[in-house]
Amino acid sequence: MGVWELLLVGVVVLLGLCGVLVPGVPGSLLVWAGVMWWALEEPRPVAWWVLVGSTAVLLLARAARWMLPPRRLELSGASPRMAVYAGVGALLGFVLVPVVGAIPGFVGGIYLSERLRLGRHREAAAAVRTAMRSGGSSVLAELFACLLVAGAWVGAVLGR
Question: What is the pLDDT of residue 76?
């Protein structure tokens, strides 16, 4: 697989990661489609293992989302700015503290967004609890699974 094709797969995976945070966009499906495209073009067996693992992780995340409360983030006052802060926080956490850092990064991003908006700790902490109860946990589960898949893909690509 050439460099340009790898860049295009990376764009699809990145769009999928961003799509997780946007209601109505099938973010996890885009991430999986990018990995599948790469696996179909890559001759190494590790590509198929990454695809199988990605499929399993995303199916488990889908099952977990069915058990969590439905997304009602609009009712909690969630804004697009909050989604951006949460996504960037999760990505930074995932990179800085590999894998498990995505969870505190996501919650920290929501807190930072609300602290900047509301100005006080008590109100920001209450807003974080409301956002997580109103569907933030299901967004976090899907985003965490997609970050795991993207990390495995990046690791397989760089491990050539």
Answer: 62
